[in-house]
Amino acid sequence: MSDETAGGVETPGPEQRGGRFLSRLRRGLFMTHTEILEKLGTAVKKGLGFDETLLDSLEETLIEADVGAETSAALREALRARGGSSAGADLDELRGILLEEIERLLASAPRATGGPPPSLEVVFLVGVNGSGKTTTTAKLAARALSAGRSVVLAAADTFRAGAIEQLEIWARRLGAPMIRHTEGSDPSAVLHDALSAARARGAQLLLVDTAGRLHTKKNLMEELSKMRRIAGREVPGAPHQCLLVLDATTGGNGLAQARRFVEAAGATGVVLTKLDGSARGGIVLAIYRELKLPVVYVGVGEGVEDLIPFEPSQYARALLGEEALAES
Prior knowledge:
The chain has helices spanning 14-17, 19-28, 30-45, 52-64, 69-82, 91-106, 133-146, 163-174, 187-201, 218-234, 252-265, 283-291, 312-319, 322-327, and strands at 5-6, 9-10, 121-126, 151-156, 178-179, 205-210, 241-247, 269-273, 295-299, 307-309. By secondary structure, the protein is α/β, with parallel strands linked by helices.
């Protein structure tokens, strides 16, 4: 299968933009959109127009879905400005206006850079412990390999016990070469050797699994900055992407993490994992409005195929219940 690529990751092709993407995302966002629609439906049944009571209910519902206080307030004000039926709010009318405002918000953040990738593309995976970086690295490798690209993996997480072995298992399963040192080694040394190996093999993509680190640990964040300098010295423009892997269930804490990674690691996009089975799918909106970062992929399951390219307009529909919208 051959997908278009943009900045080291495949952009959604027709299949992803169509039913497969929507069905998987709807499954992942089921709890989120169910809660949103139930609570908005209750407010609408009270027979009120677009007044403060209804807007209060909307804002509270969005905050509970981890849209974030600032973003929820902004959507509330947008709906107040748009107005609606004065005699009584209609759920379909409310949902339609909210959908338009969410789509407008998602369009405000930059998209992943288009165009052909460089001869050797270097992509860092960064984030805190437990966000799913190693598994995401493997899933991205699987997608690139299925698209016909040659891939090298770098096991630069030398601190977490078992991280190297975990990535090595994936590398064997995928048939991709992996560069590793012993546990506790200097991650920058691993990166240096991986860059050399990728160039020697004529690889098209180098995926670097970095160690999980708290955004508050200055020395570890500085280590990421050092790795960025090494990559840029060895390969022009590298790292071409720095993908921040965020756990969707962390909620508002994820935003605090992300801000620091943007500053120290130069994060260019987000991979949002564990979106399935959570009522917190609204965090995507906070990422777009407050961080101005595009969400590149979302994880809606544990399988390799469950890491899917993010499509903003389809996300907006899934967040508000696509089936109901189609009927309205």
